[in-house]
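Hypothesis: this fold can be encoded by more than one sequence.
Test: take the C-alpha cells below, design a sequence, compare later.
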C-alpha cells in the first residue's frame, strides 16, 4: 500500500494505491467546523443528492446507470468527527482493468451528476423526492423512542457530553426538521460546495492516476470554492459533574450506560495505552467485565466497553434486569478497581495485544478505515499504521496500571424497563 497526497487549489486528492481490492473507491468529503444548526440540512441533503439528477430524474434511472457501469453505486453520508461536521459522497466501481478503460471517465461522470447536477428547478430539489426523503427521516427518528438501546444511548450522551459535538443527535431536532423548507436545503447545498473544505480519496489499484486527476480537475473546474479556514479537530476538555440518572420506559429489559473521564492523559496514553486498557476491561471476548458480570454472576447476556475520542472518555454498556441494577453497578466498580491490580491485568495482557495486532491488520482490508485514518491526518498529528503497531507492542503492564489510576466515574444512566406481564400481552 502506498499513500500520496496531491494539493490542488480548491481541494486535496489522497491516493491510496493498493492491490487488495478489485474495485476503485472515490469519495468526496466536505468538512467545516461543527455547527449543530447545519446537521438537519446535511441529513436532508445527503438523501436528495442521490435520489435524482437533472439527467437521471428518478432513483430507478440512477440505479440503471449504475448497472450499466458494471454495478457502480453512489452513496452519501454525513456525521461529526471531533469538532468537525462533514458530508461524504462516495462512488465505488469495478477497476477499469477488468472492464473498459473508458469506465474511468464514465464512472466519474456518474459521481459528477449526483454532486454538481442535482435535480433542481426554481431553487428547489425535486419536490416529490424531497417530501419522501423528509418524511422517511422524520419517521425514522420518531421510531428511536421504540428502540431501548438507541434511545438510552442518546439520553446518556446528552448528559455525559453536554456542550460538545458528540452529544448531538438528530432525534432532538425532529420538530426543526419538520419545518425546513426545500429551498433552504438547496441554499445550504450551495453554501457547502462553495465554502466547505474538500478532500477527495481515491483508493484501489491505481495505475493511471494522472487520468483520474484530469477528470477530477474537469469535474471541479467550475466550482468556486473559497474555503480558507483552519479547522480544529480535537476537543481536549470534558467538564461533567458526577451524577446518576434513571428513566422508566415500557421495555422488558433495562439499558445501563456508565461514562468515565480520565485525568491528565498524555498523548501516548491517549493513542496507545487507553486502547489496551479498554481491551482488557471490556473490549475483548473474555474481558474482565464479561468474566465477572456475565460468567461469574449471570447478570446480563453481554457487557462491553468502548472509547470515545474528542473528547476522550470510556463507556461501559449492558442490558440488565432492573432487579440486578444495584449489584451490577457494584460489581462494575469492583472490576474498575481490578484494573489497578497487576495480576488481574496480566492475565489478559497478551490476549489484548493479539486483538490489537489483528485489528491493525484489518486496516489494509477496509476502505472506510483507510479513509478515516488519512482524513484525520488532515487535522491532527497521527502516526502511520506500522508506527502505531510498533508503539502498541511496546505498551507495558506498568503503563496500563498507571493509566488505571486516572479514571473517574461521571455519568450513570439507567433506562429502567418498566413492562409488567399485563403490558407484554
Amino acid at each position: 500500500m502506498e499513500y500520496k497526497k496531491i494539493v490542488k487549489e480548491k481541494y486535496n486528492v489522497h491516493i491510496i494505491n493498493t492491490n487488495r481490492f478489485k474495485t476503485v473507491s472515490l469519495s468526496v468529503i466536505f468538512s467545516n467546523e461543527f455547527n449543530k444548526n447545519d446537521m438537519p440540512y446535511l441529513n436532508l441533503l445527503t438523501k436528495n443528492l442521490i435520489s435524482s439528477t437533472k439527467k437521471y430524474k428518478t432513483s430507478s434511472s440512477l440505479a440503471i446507470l449504475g448497472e450499466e457501469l458494471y454495478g457502480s453505486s453512489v452513496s452519501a453520508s454525513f456525521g461529526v468527527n471531533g469538532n468537525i461536521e462533514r458530508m461524504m459522497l462516495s462512488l465505488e466501481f469495478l477497476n477499469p482493468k477488468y472492464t473498459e478503460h473508458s469506465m474511468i471517465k464514465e464512472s466519474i461522470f456518474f459521481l459528477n451528476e449526483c454532486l454538481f447536477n442535482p435535480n433542481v428547478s426554481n431553487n428547489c430539489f425535486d419536490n416529490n423526492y424531497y417530501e419522501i426523503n423528509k418524511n422517511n427521516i422524520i419517521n425514522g427518528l420518531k421510531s428511536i423512542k421504540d428502540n431501548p438501546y438507541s434511545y438510552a444511548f442518546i439520553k446518556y450522551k446528552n448528559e455525559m457530553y453536554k456542550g460538545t459535538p458528540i452529544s448531538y443527535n438528530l432525534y432532538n431536532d425532529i420538530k426543526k426538521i419538520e419545518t425546513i423548507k426545500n429551498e433552504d436545503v438547496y441554499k445550504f447545498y450551495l453554501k457547502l460546495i462553495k465554502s466547505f473544505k474538500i478532500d477527495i480519496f481515491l483508493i484501489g489499484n491505481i495505475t493511471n492516476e494522472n487520468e483520474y486527476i484530469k477528470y477530477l480537475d474537469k469535474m471541479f473546474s467550475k466550482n468556486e470554492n473559497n474555503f480558507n479556514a483552519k479547522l480544529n479537530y480535537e476537543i481536549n476538555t470534558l467538564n461533567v459533574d458526577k451524577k446518576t440518572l434513571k428513566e422508566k420506559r415500557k421495555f422488558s429489559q433495562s439499558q445501563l450506560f456508565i461514562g468515565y473521564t480520565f485525568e491528565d492523559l498524555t498523548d501516548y496514553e491517549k493513542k496507545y495505552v487507553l486502547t489496551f486498557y479498554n481491551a482488557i476491561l471490556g473490549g475483548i471476548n473474555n474481558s474482565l467485565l464479561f468474566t465477572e458480570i456475565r460468567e461469574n454472576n449471570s447478570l446480563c447476556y453481554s457487557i462491553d466497553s468502548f472509547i470515545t475520542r474528542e473528547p476522550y472518555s470510556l463507556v461501559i454498556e449492558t442490558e440488565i434486569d432492573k432487579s440486578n441494577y444495584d449489584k451490577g453497578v457494584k460489581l462494575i466498580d469492583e472490576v474498575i478497581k481490578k484494573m489497578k491490580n497487576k495480576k488481574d491485568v496480566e492475565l489478559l495482557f497478551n490476549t489484548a495485544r493479539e486483538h490489537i495486532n489483528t485489528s491493525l491488520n484489518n486496516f489494509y482490508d477496509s476502505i472506510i478505515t483507510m479513509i478515516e485514518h488519512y482524513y484525520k491526518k488532515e487535522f491532527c498529528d497521527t502516526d502511520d499504521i506500522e508506527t502505531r503497531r510498533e508503539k502498541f507492542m511496546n505498551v507495558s503492564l506498568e503503563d496500563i496500571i498507571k493509566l488505571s489510576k486516572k479514571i473517574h466515574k461521571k455519568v450513570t444512566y439507567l433506562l429502567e424497563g418498566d413492562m409488567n406481564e399485563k403490558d407484554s400481552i
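Confidence is low (pLDDT under 50) at residues 421-425. The radius of gyration is 24 Å.
Hypothesis status: open.
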